[in-house]
Write a structure and sequence with these properties.
heterodimer, A: mainly alpha, 8 helices, B: mainly alpha, 0% strand
Chain lengths: 174, 189
C-alpha cells in the first residue's frame, strides 16, 4: 500500500468504521500516514476533549421561563376548553332528554292540577319555541342532518359556556 | 452524542404541558447546538444569540413535533438553518458545491516529526485547522466528530443527499489533515 491509497482509505472511512489493517501497517513506516492516523484518532475522541459550551445563565433562564409561561397558558387554556366541552355536552344531553321525555314524564310525575297550571305558562312558550325550531325539522330529516344539528347546538352551547367562564372566571383562572 | 434517554417520553410530557420536559431536552442538546453554532460563526456572543433563537424555534415547534421523527436531526436542522440564515444576512458567500474530480488528490504531505507532536498540540492544531475550512466542510466535520451524528443524520439536518455528505466529508478530512500537517510543520523549531 502506498500513501495515496492509505490516505484515500482514511478519508473515505465510514464514521466509526475501524481503520483498515493494511493502512495501519503502512503507517508504521510512513510518518505522514501515521500523523493522518493520529488525527483521525484524535478527531474520534473529540467529544471527550472538546469544550462543552453552555449558554449564559440569564439566557437559559429566559428560555426556560418562556417555556414555563407558554406551557402554563396552554395547560390553563386546554383545561378551560375541556371543562367547557364537558359542561356543554351535559347541558345538551339534559336538554335533549327533557325534550324527548317531557310529554311522558309530565303525565306520570305531575298531578293533574299542577300539569294544568303549568300548561297555562308552558303552552305559549312551547308554541313560541316550536315556531322557532320548525325550520330545523326538514334539516334534521336530511342525511347527517341530526348529527350536524347536534354539532351546531353543541358549538353554540360551548361558546356560551366559554364566554361565561371567561367573563366570570373561577378563582384559579384569575 | 448519546441520544436523550426516554426522548419520546419528554416530548409527550411537553405536549401534555410539562415545561420541565423542555428544560430536559435543552439541557441535553444545548452544548452541542451552541458548540456547532460557535464553531460556524466564530463568535461566542453571536453563537449565543443564534442558539437562543434555535431553542425558541424548538420551543414553538415541539408541540407539533411528529411522533417517530428524530428529535436530534430536527434540532440540528433548525441550528443549521439558523447558521445559514445568519451567513446569508451577514453577506457571507455560499461556497459552490462542485463534485470531487479525479484530479483533486493532493500530493502526499511532507513527513512530520510525529514523535514530537504532543496530544495537546495536535488538538490545538485540529481546532485551528477547523477554522480554516470552508463553512460546509467545517459544519459536517463538527456534526460528525463533535456531535456524533451519522452520515444519514447529517444529510437530513443539512438537507443534502447522503452521497454529497460523503463527498464533502472526504474533502473535509483531507483539507483538515493537510492544514494540520502544514501548521505542525510551521511550528517546528
Amino acid at each position: 500500500m502506498n500513501c495515496r491509497e492509505c490516505l484515500d482509505l482514511l478519508d473515505g472511512l465510514e464514521p466509526g468504521a475501524p481503520v483498515p489493517e493494511a493502512c495501519r501497517e503502512h503507517a508504521t513506516s510512513c510518518p505522514a500516514c501515521a500523523l493522518a492516523l493520529r488525527i483521525e484518532g484524535t478527531l474520534r475522541e473529540a467529544p471527550e476533549w472538546a469544550r462543552q459550551p453552555r449558554l449564559a445563565l440569564e439566557t437559559r433562564a429566559g428560555l426556560l421561563g418562556r417555556a414555563r409561561l407558554g406551557r402554563l397558558f396552554w395547560r390553563q387554556a386546554s383545561s378551560l376548553f375541556e371543562e367547557a366541552a364537558v359542561t356543554a355536552l351535559t347541558l345538551l344531553s339534559a336538554i335533549a332528554g327533557l325534550v324527548i321525555l317531557w310529554p311522558k314524564l309530565s303525565v306520570t310525575l305531575m298531578p293533574e292540577p299542577v300539569r294544568r297550571a303549568a300548561a297555562e305558562y308552558l303552552g305559549p312558550a312551547a308554541g313560541y319555541l316550536s315556531g322557532l325550531l320548525s325550520p330545523l325539522v326538514p334539516l334534521i330529516r336530511e342525511p347527517w342532518g341530526l348529527a350536524l344539528t347536534a354539532a351546531a347546538l353543541f358549538s353554540i352551547l360551548m361558546a356560551a359556556v366559554l364566554s361565561a367562564k371567561v367573563l366570570v372566571p373561577a378563582p384559579h383562572f384569575r | 452524542m448519546e441520544p436523550l434517554p426516554a426522548e419520546q417520553r419528554w416530548i409527550d410530557a411537553f405536549k401534555a404541558g410539562d415545561a420541565a420536559a423542555f428544560a430536559k431536552i435543552m439541557e441535553h442538546y444545548e452544548p452541542y447546538v451552541l458548540g456547532l453554532i460557535w464553531r460556524m460563526t466564530g463568535d461566542r456572543a453571536t453563537a449565543e444569540d443564534l442558539c437562543q433563537e434555535t431553542f425558541l424555534k424548538i420551543l414553538r415547534g415541539l408541540g407539533s413535533f411528529r411522533r417517530g421523527s428524530s428529535l436530534k436531526t430536527w434540532i440540528f436542522r433548525i441550528a443549521h438553518n439558523a447558521v445559514v440564515d445568519y451567513a446569508r444576512g451577514a453577506g457571507l458567500a455560499a461556497e459552490p458545491l462542485e463534485e470531487l474530480g479525479a484530479d483533486t488528490c493532493p500530493p502526499d504531505p511532507a513527513p512530520t516529526p510525529l514523535a514530537q507532536v504532543e496530544e495537546g498540540q495536535l488538538r490545538q492544531g485540529i481546532e485551528e485547522a477547523m477554522g480554516t475550512l470552508a463553512p460546509r466542510e467545517r459544519e459536517i466535520l463538527h456534526m460528525l466528530y463533535w456531535d456524533g451524528l451519522s452520515v444519514a443524520e447529517i444529510a437530513a439536518a443539512c438537507t443534502l443527499p447522503e452521497g454529497t455528505v460523503k463527498t464533502l466529508l472526504f474533502r473535509a478530512r483531507r483539507a483538515l489533515r493537510e492544514q494540520v500537517s502544514r501548521s505542525l510543520m510551521e511550528a517546528r523549531p
